[in-house]
Fold:
Amino acid sequence: METYTLVVLLLAATLRVASPLVLAALGGLFSERSGVIALGLEGMMLAAAFASAAASAATGSAWAGLGAGIAVACLLALLLAYACVTHGGNQVVAAIAVNIMVSGLGPTLALAWFDQGGQTPPLESPAQRFLPLAWPWARQARAAPFPGMVYSELIGGHNLLVYVAWILVPLSAWVLYRTRFGLRLRAVGENPVAVDTAGLSVARLRYQGVLVSGALCGVAGTYLATAASSGFVRDMTAGKGYLALAALIFGKWKPLPTFGACLLFAFANALADRLQGVPLPWVGVVPVQFIQALPYVLTVLLLAGFVGEAVAPKAIGVSYSKER
Amino acid sequence: MSAAGPAKLPRWAEFGLLPALNLAAALLLSGLVVRAIGESPWAALRLLAAGAFGSPEAIGYTLYYATNFIFTGLAVAVACQAGLFNIGAEGQAYVGGLGAGLVALGCGHLPSLLVWPLAVLAGAGAGAAWALIPAWLQARRGSHIVITTIMFNFIASALMTWLLVDVLIKPGQQSPETREFAAAAWLPTLHDLLAKAGVAAALSPLNLAFLLALAAAALVWLLIWHTPWGFAVRVVGANPAAARYAGISPPRVIVAVMLLSGALAGCLSLNELLGVQHRILLDFPAGAGFVGIAVALMGRNHPLGVILAAVLFGALYQGGSELAFDMPHITRDLVVVIQGLVILFCGALENLFKRPLAALLASRA
Amino acid sequence: MSPALELRGIDKRFGPVHANRAVSLSVAAGSVHGLVGENGAGKSTLMNIVYGFHPADAGEIRVRGRAVEIRRPQDAIAAGIGMVHQHFMLVETFTALENAVLGAEGGVRLSAGLGRAREELERLGREHGLEVPLDEPVARLPVGLQQRVEILKALYRGAEILILDEPTAVLTPQEADKLFGLLRRLRGRGKAVILVTHKLREIMAVTDRVTVLRQGAVAAEVATADTNPRDLAERMVGRAVALQVERAPARPGAARLRVERLEVRDRQGTPRVRGVSFELRAGEIVGLAGVTGNGQSELLEALAGLAEPSAGRIALEGRTLRPGDDRRALGLAHVPEDRLRLGAVAAFPAQDNAILGYHAAPEYRRGPWLRARAVQADCERKMEAWDVRPPLPRQRLGAFSGGNQQKLVLARELGRAPRVLLVGQPTRGVDIGAIEFIHRRLVALRDSGAALLLVSVELDEILGLADRILVMAGGEITGELSRAEATEERLGLLMAGIRGAAGGRAP
Structure:
């Protein structure tokens, strides 16, 4: 029984930790499928975290925070697209530039606006945050651990943005494989010249792909600042954008496998959290830093072992110009 | 069929005017941020310039920061010559400090002239070692070096925190840092050196490592542009398929260049630890690895350009600290913003000014 | 009746290059119109303007008598113009069906549109004899079928004017004849077809009228019946040309390169070269003919040490070559098929390209240092000897014309008197004047006793230069013909993989 509770809680934590990764990775999927490298997820997410926390603190509304987060991340996406698509700039350099700029800009503006040492004020009122939703009869269900606890903790009991992330997985797959937009997006990431000769605008499609990634990073950043915690602190994404990108690569640029990769990362993370300070057989207590480094090590291992080069969208990272 | 291709500029415009324009654009946008904060951009700029160059002491500080950025800038620039984007200079510098620091801690009883070279070797070696795995993964398994070096920055941070908190910490002390190095391991400051030669100079942390950085720049220049190996590196960067055709092994070049890159980044610790702090402490690279990206891009990946851009960023850092005294709402985070904007304009948006400039110059020629 | 397509005074510059000079052209419905010219004569630019890829600086495009403004491919498609590019514009991971509907999907959701498109494509396929498997990813289709998909794609979009840019580059002569049959059928149904090519045989075979472009301007427009290949060639170049290089018969000596049961696999593990054996003797040029993509490139790369064979043996003068061997030092030189991908670095100055692969040679070094002055002097000598223009060692290679780039690569590879030269597509993207020059140098190298393996998709080039011809199809050598036995027809059958009928000896 003890174990059962632990497992359910561990899986529930996995789902929560996975949500921002899923949101960002799905966003990255649209960007990379259009042929634009999604290294900017980190910066867009961090900017959205700051914007949503600031807006929520200022207005008292989490929804205003969400709007601000999405808007700011989309603005950065436009900047990226302007540099990479309109001017054919190096996509990696552009993304790193945005990430570095955002890492300085958030604390700078936070200090100037809120005077709390580069953070936003804590979001104390429930209206300022996306809090877990109580499902009908959840409390009663908990009385019967199985399956009640699965209902109350695993399926229910999350905040709204977690469900948004879930819904977006099949929705993304549908858009990508069953709609005109998806067909064109996949085409432009594989062979932009073919898209151009078919009478479609390569630039327009790539702007759209990057913008979708901005919007989803906006939700992911909002999640970090207003759901997972109560406010913005510097560098609060801590590489989650890069992890999302790694999950996307590991998921071979497909929605469902990418979702699976995010769950894997999140599970390792949730498990590591549980193991903190717990003595393990043979090794004893693992230093907390090792546990913190686990997702990064995992990323390196995944990239080292499993990724074939051939499966990436063929035109990724290559700016398109008619001047061949 | 088109004859256009990438825009070509004369050298003076490519290496002088264009970076100046890009910098101006970055500063202009930063000025807008300063205005948004509610301060005067002009006043900020004046304070910044005075803080960076207003006194011999200020210049000393500027060059001290610049020393860090020369090392990391060279690290990024060298990797770039082989077409590799090394985002990991931060972690390589951090781990390099472990190498140099352990030598300084363990060999402090030896004479300075023995400790220094050992520390240089250990610092460079540890930095190189930290670059080895991402390099090997890129060369042999095709793992994207941008992502792996970023991950290695995070891993380096965790590793060093653990070592400093649990292992290397001076017993009976709260803050996670080692004991002080023996004086024999300290790199002399330039004002001490000059004082011995009978010249009075302003007190500043500027030290022997600055000269080492200049020497490293000269070495990189010779290596990349004046040896067959450097030729091979540039071919790999420009056209890996042609490199294979020419009998060059891209994987081997990638690994070798990344080792050199990591070694250069690892040398940052000579300035920061042996020159100034005299102990290993938490997060001593303080973002210099990322500044290196901006420095390399702005310096067009050329050692001379790297030195000039490093001095500029040294001035931003030094001036930025002074600025924070007078304008408490402005911290060094603003310099990070400028850094990001410089990378944006010099790197990703280089065509923004380049194409019109090339057209303008062509029409006047 | 007004012509299906009429161009009036089309003018286009790319910076200093005047690509099209007041070009006028008229194509009647129900006709096949040829467009010929040398490399760089402006054929592709002109067609790209018609298809909306580049805007023209001046001039007018009229379709069925009405002036149309074509700024983007969309406009061209709307005006009933379709184009089959030399490099197919297909998304390789997509099926033929998906490729055909891309940009004309018929609705936000795919399913309904795809169903309608399938019926329409099947109808078009039956009508024109263009059946293709609609649900297979096109990457898995042979190139001939991929080309059909391209044509089908254009017809599906309602093309009345069909432009084909060098469509036979990837086909055997027999497949080309089939394509011409299709073009005649399209003509019979009232379509206007423009055939862009540099092969005069094709012009004579299928076109009704022909326009010759030279240096961006129209040099002639004639009815095909009123002209002949020599006349066309002279109009293309602007002077009398020798279509054949004169040379003495070969006097083959000892075997220099021996290849035994060589097998090369690609990354997916598919064999591209299957059990190939042959011998290359001193003082002869052996031509390797075949349609692009039949293993010649892989064979060449394996011989040059760029790909590792999965089985078999390569021996240079008796010595078995291994992957790590420095083949240059052993006297094996290689002029790759695609010079800008493999053989040179476009962004580097000419002088750096002139030492590529030999950059560690002692004459360019002093101790560990590279001597810039020696490198430059060496390049100046090569430019002089090969008449490279302009003779500027410090100019970026990419800024030279294709012919001059190729001369520089040849100067580098021939400069050290190789024992064996592997040369791929030596005159691809090279103007006719330089072709003659290069061919003469290759023959001179042969006469000096070197062994040459010439890989080319240009049958004229093979027939003009080779002393012995090997034909490759499907990764195997399907036959060997002496120079006297070789005819285009026999080669074509061997290129299609039909062995017995061609009367060639089994190797």
About this structure: Chain C has 16 helices and 22 strands. The interface with chain B takes residues 14-17, 19, 40, 42, 44-45, 48, 54, 304, 306, 326-328, 334, 336, 341-348, 352, 356-357, 359-360, 364-365, 368-370, 372, 396, 398 of chain C (CB under 8 Å). Chain C has a mean pLDDT of 90. The longest helix of chain C spans residues 110-128.
